[in-house]
Amino acid sequence: MSKIKFRNELKFFINHLQYFTIRQRLRNLMQPDEHAGSTGEYHIRSLYFDDFSNTALNDKLGGFRDRKKYRIRIYNGQDKVIHFEKKLKRMDYIAKLKEPLTREMYNRIMAGDYEVLNVPDKPLFTEIYNEMHDNLLRPKVIVDYVREPYVCHNGNVRITFDKDLRTGLHAVDIFDPELAPVKAIDEDLIILEVKFDEYIPGYIQTALQLEGLNRQSASKYVICRKFLKYNSWEDY
């Protein structure tokens, strides 16, 4: 497996007024991501996995600095690009490892046939396969949202506005045409994510005015898992 490259990641909740203000500034300073297409947006749907101890959930809630999550991700509801991903967190730094899946591989995984991941020359697949066998890693929740992304090569900065966060509740098939995700954030908030390598150029920092924003730590996975509470006394 190649050397893992970690990047800085900052997250904020913003309201619509803040969104329109920041977006207007950024449009003059950054380029839309090439994957966004003519609308400037694309749809992301992820299926998150967790083990029998809910380690990913509990490590996040417990404030552990070093964490990991596994997910299958698709774009715009299509199966042309399917990735099994591992997201690593080290304090404010993140890294992502991923391997492509075919639709057939996805179908087999969802049917409980994890042998499809027993591929010795694919370390990430081998790791996930072992997690599924040893720790009962299983699908937990669908996380669904619309992303508006901007990029700047100076500092390798990527800024995204994630809107209309929804959860699939107890459904776990990301290709289910009957899936009707429900709104996962009570207020009509947008999640602003700022990712960069070593630094953010000063002119982008000025445009963002991060000091005045509401820094947030709750991941989309945790936000959506709260809808799966089986008991009224549970509180994530």
Automatic annotation (TrEMBL):
Residue intervals of the VTC domain: 6-228
InterPro entries recorded: VTC_domain, VTC_sf
Any matching Pfam family: VTC
Protein name per its UniProtKB record: Molecular chaperone
